[in-house]
Write a structure and sequence with these properties.
Layout (H helix, E strand, L loop, with lengths): L3 E6 L5 H12 L2 E3 L2 H10 L3 H6 L10 H10 L4 H4 L3 H19 L2 E4 L3 H4 L6 E7 L2 H11 L6 H22 L12 E4 H21 L2
Parallel strand pairs: 1-3, 1-4, 2-3, 4-5
Length: 208
Amino acid sequence: MDTIITIGRQFGSGGREIGQKVADHFGIKFYDKELLTRAAKDSGFAKEMIQDHDERPTTSFLYNLVMDTYSFGYNSSSFIDMPISHKIFLAQFDTIKKIADEGPCVIVGRCADYALADYKNVVNVFVHADEEDKINRVIERYSDINTRDKALEMILKKDKQRQSYYNYYSSKKWGRSDTYDLTVNSSVLGIEGTVKLITQFVEDFESR
């Protein structure tokens, strides 16, 4: 197997758990928060600094500046003057490419599908779910979220952050079906059923 699997996900959809189970199925590496640790090690940025900017939207500068700087490298004057949020995005961008070059894996979030747009061995998946299931999963996971209203508020906030981050740095639209190779509602098949669907899709992709 040599396929890289990227997973975008709505908050509370079970996307992280699904990604981990897909990685376990194929016996390959899994990166979610692990990516932040690796990006900190590769870039020299403090891990806490990268965590503070993780999948958070940004403002105040043009997208083209990021990509122009990415093309010229970290030694350019524009990189030195760049806001820290953009430097961290580029550090993650680089780390995602390094990880993909090392072999098959599952990468959750962080615009990984966009970072690997030029790679031919990538399957891009997006996981969403029904509102009620997301609310129940958030309440179950977070001890300080004990009401439906709090859970829904957190879901809307997190998804807005992820959408803004993705749409800002990417040329595509977060969560829209034509952005991905496969979009799946985890409420329909459940976690295990969704894992089975994704693994079958990847196996069919590999046998083309």
